[in-house]
TrEMBL record:
Residues 1-79 form the GST N-terminal domain. One of its GO terms (biological process) is glutathione metabolic process. It comes from Microvirga flocculans. GO terms for molecular function: glutathione transferase activity. SUPFAM superfamilies: GST C-terminal domain-like, Thioredoxin-like. It is an enzyme of class 2 (transferase). Coiled coil: none annotated. Residues 88-225 form the GST C-terminal domain. This is Glutathione S-transferase. It holds the Pfam family GST_C_3. Homodimer.
């Protein structure tokens, strides 16, 4: 049985969960707290990053980008026109560019700050960095999310999906990261209706249901979080 090491509010883990759900794959899920750095986990993935997917053969696939490539190589051809990394070279380049935008740039400028400061620190021991949130980091992320939202709106104004005519890894990565920020109520949806409508399309997919059911203990989501007609 395949295994997915992930954390419910880790944005990179959410990308893995969305992709696997879209493919109809249901691995056993092991909750891995990002700050714990458990020795058995580090022995498999020395980077200590999430997600970590272990396939039926025992092959360990670490990190969201690596997992996306692995799933395309092992299952992409069977998806034909539903392939999340399209066959045509130019389209593949564009999907990879946007995948990097959201898994690296958006994560580094927005979702990692907010997840860490507003969620992780609530449960981290003090010696590992737990405690009150850094309001400066939160304000920076809340500022940064605005131009990312505008960029999503710009892309969708010219395309059916972020990278082109069909849904790809780019859409799933963007939605996964936004979902954490949205839980916290930090996405200014009123600033870009085009981006909001795109997110509503993704949010309505069956693969998103598990994410919408997640809850942070002691912290309710934004009122619209699991409302498909928000």
């Amino acid at each position: 049985m395949a295994i997915l090491h992930s954390y419910p509010f880790c944005p990179q883990s959410r990308f893995a969960r969305l992709v696997l759900a879209e493919l109809g794959l249901e691995p056993d899920v092991v909750e891995e707290k990002p700050w714990d750095r458990r020795v058995p986990f580090l022995e498999i993935n020395p980077a200590g990053s999430l997600p970590l997917y272990i396939d039926d053969s025992g092959l360990a696939v670490a990190g969201p980008s690596c997992l996306a490539e692995y799933l395309d190589e092992t299952r992409g051809e069977d998806l034909r026109d539903r392939r999340f990394l399209p066959q045509e070279l130019g389209q593949r380049v564009e999907v990879r560019r946007l995948l990097d935008w959201f898994l690296v740039k958006f994560h580094g400028e927005v979702s990692d700050y907010l997840a860490t400061e507003k969620i992780y620190k609530r449960f981290m021991p003090g010696e590992l960095g737990g405690g009150p949130p850094d309001m400066g980091a939160i304000r920076a992320a809340q500022t940064n999310v605005r131009y990312h939202l505008k960029y999503i709106g710009f892309l969708i104004s010219k395309r059916n999906w972020l990278a082109g005519d069909q849904m790809t890894y780019a859409d799933l990565a963007a939605a996964a990261h936004l979902s954490v920020v949205d839980y916290l109520g930090d996405v200014p949806w009123n600033e870009d209706e085009t981006a909001k409508l795109w997110y509503a399309r993704i949010k309505s997919r069956p693969s998103f249901r598990a994410l919408l059911a997640d809850r942070v203990p002691g912290m309710a989501p934004a009122d619209h979080y699991d409302n498909l007609d928000f």
